[in-house]
Amino acid sequence: MPERNVKKPEIKILIFYSLLLAASFIFFDRLLFLALREAAAHFYVSMKTDEFPWLEPEGSGNGQILILGTSRSYYGFDDDVLSSILKAKIYKQAQPGNYPQYNYYFYQKYKTTFPKPRLVIYGLDYFIFERESINLELVRLDNTIQLKKMNPQGVSNPSSPWLSRASWLYRLKPKTDEFIADLWKFDRKPEEAEVHPAASQPGKEKKLELKRKSRRGMPRGAFGPKPRTWPKSFYHSFPGEEGVFLKRLLDELDQDGVPAFLVFIPEYIGSYETNFEQEKFKRDIRQLVTPYEKLRVLDFNNLEKFDLNNSRLFWNGGWGVSNSHLNDKGARLFSRKLAMDMKRILKSDQPARGPKAS
Amino acid sequence: MTLISTGFLAFFLAVFLLYFFAPRKAQPAVLLAASLLFYGSQGLSFLLVLIVEIGFVYVCALWIEKFTGFKRKRILLLSLLGVLSPLIVFKYLNFVIQSVYSFFHSSAAGKSFLWLSLILPIGISFYTLKSVSYLLDVYYSRIQAEKNPILLGLYISFFPQILAGPIERSRNFLCQFRTDNVLNLAHLSQGLKLVTWGIFKKVVIADQLAKYVNIIFDRPQDFPDLSLIFGLIFYSFQIYCDFSGYSDMAIGLAKILGIDSMENFHYPYFSRSVVEFWSRWHISLSTWLRDYLFLPITYALSRKIRVERFLLVKTEFFMYFLGVGMTMLLCGLWHGAGWTFVVWGGVHGFYLIFSRATKKVRYAGLKWLHLRKDNAFLDGWKKLSTFFLVTLAWVFFRSTSLANVWLYLRNISFRLPQKGVGQLLFFSSLLVVFLVAEALMKNKDKIRFLKKIPGPIQVIAYALFLCLIIILAADTSNEFLYFRF
Hints:
CATH topology of the domain at 64-146 and 184-347 in chain A: Rossmann fold
Distance between the termini of chain B: 17 Å
Helix content of chain B: over 70%
CATH architecture of the domain at 64-146 and 184-347 in chain A: 3-Layer(aba) Sandwich
CATH class of the domain at 64-146 and 184-347 in chain A: Alpha Beta
Largest sheet of chain B: 2 strands, antiparallel
Mean pLDDT of chain A: 82
Shape of chain A: globular
Helix content of chain A: 40-55%
Strand content of chain A: 5-15%
Number of domains of chain B: 2
Low-confidence stretches of chain B: none
CATH superfamily of the domain at 64-146 and 184-347 in chain A: SGNH hydrolase
Oligomer: heterodimer
Number of strands of chain B: 2
Number of helices of chain B: 20
Order of helices and strands of chain B: HHHHHHHHHHHHEEHHHHHHHH
Mean pLDDT of chain B: 87
Radius of gyration of chain A: 25 Å
Number of strands of chain A: 5
Strand order of the largest sheet of chain A: 2-1-3-4-5
């Protein structure tokens, strides 16, 4: 037994205070969580959203091709080239932070306004299952999404599962933090408060400006020589944060009978070698696409299909940099190759069976 | 494993139970084992350096005590060299190489060709000072050399203090293990309160402010308005709450184990002068510098210079000037191997010297204005001006280079910020609430109603406080700032 100068009445007081502390903590924990959730509901539901559609389709032709993805898709797919070869209009809903959850909900919204797309092109990123879509962008699509996330049932905070059992506030800390972060984003953009605080999809004029910026390729040697060692980036496998939404999107495309191409966009060789678990990534995607007849995988992120060594085709990337984007020249070259491949595949007599990767 | 992690919570619970269930004679060994295990979790190579240092200090102290005269002095010098060598090599060697290289190659930027890949063992700056103070205390016969290696090892490696202090003195620490140490509810309660307050300061105040501060300091040229001033003020509180928060946790954890540690921060931003500031800020370091650097330097100078005036100034002032100057420059260097830290120390040295040089003039001015020392307006003015001076010096501490310091200072303006006003107001409100809480704690003995709050109400308030900590805790994983030293 430990030596102690603790008397029996003190032990009783200790037990009483411990129980009181536990009870008070549980009470305030639930109360404050519900208050936060109420505040979040009011904040998200009261957001005005601008009228859909947000963009004008580019090009001309028969039907519309929907392009989904992040900034790598935004910069990587050249609308004019794709439109002229595939003879269709291009609706490119691609911007930073458009991960699978966003793209899934966007497709629902797209279908409410436009007829079935002729084709869907989905640009893939190495970190597709690692990241989460931006909340304030999701709210544009459905302002109850964030609230659905703030449900304490069946959720656990990965940093401490046992603490999660005791406290709802701790369990949903990542989600409440997202809400507070959204409040600050709103605070930093007061001029857009009336329409939407994070309307980051550029309008036509801004798109041209962004294209002009990326037109100038990087000078030779801008990425620097290959170092002896560099930080590597691990691949977060399916389902990760939003993989289930990619699965749902593929299910829906299949049900709608819409052909789709999931495309591995080229990365500069430095980034390609930084993202060293490429085979795991590609295997995951191919396995996902296997059950679907009209869905295919096209792999341009390899040295046989695209000159990943040519820094003049990229405007960023490098050893230790996981994210790499094609510049205008690179996008035109890539889009031409991609369009020719897609055209050939679509025209072929063979039944469209995935996962034929080219 | 840091003090704020669920792994540490489980670790501490196990240590707590083992410690109080262990026989009294085995208690130091339990704590030593726990301390080595804790430090080993930071890195096995770091643990090796620590164990070698403990062994070295143990042997050297015994030898110092054994001899007298010149031999004793020689052993002391060698032991100090041995103890300081790892710190100098790991922390300052690259800095010295780079500085010398840059001096001879003015166009050099970044690392020199001789850059060594050395990882600084965490906490080495702190436990080295403990070792040095112990050896010097033995040399000056202030304490006897510790014969029990377990106690000495525990003193140097005590896990709540090893990573970022307080830099405890051996005579205060070691004597606590010569008496019974039993579980005490009062200690438990005080310790828990301190730990909780420390966690609040770190994860709520410091880490939240860090979000704003990091953005401002990364690109000050993007904020040519009041944001830069707020950034500086917020950084003052970020570093205070980060460091004092850790100290509170360390002191609280030790208290739970029945061990008293020295106070490390005593409301420094309520200081009326920079001199007072240094008696309230990082007290364990400032007293260490006073006792083992400043006083020995001035004593050595006083033995060499025996005239009343030296180099046209009073000898007394000259000694103070040299003593404070050297001490503060070394203080800056201790904080980091970089010129910004040295300049920061130099700025504070200048403040102290200027304060001393103008003391008579300022008192004469007060007399002329018929202002009493305890005048409330004067008191407020002193506190604000001291805060202003200390905050201004933090620019050097926080900036990554002297060029960035200039970039920051020249972009300061008084224009109102156009964006992020809500966030600014939130952080300002948080700080105001924090300052009010600190003021209440500082004067808790004078405020009757605080003493009369019934126990159950305190417990309920504590539960609410814990919930607020969870909500307001920043979602980043900022390491404690002083771990970098």
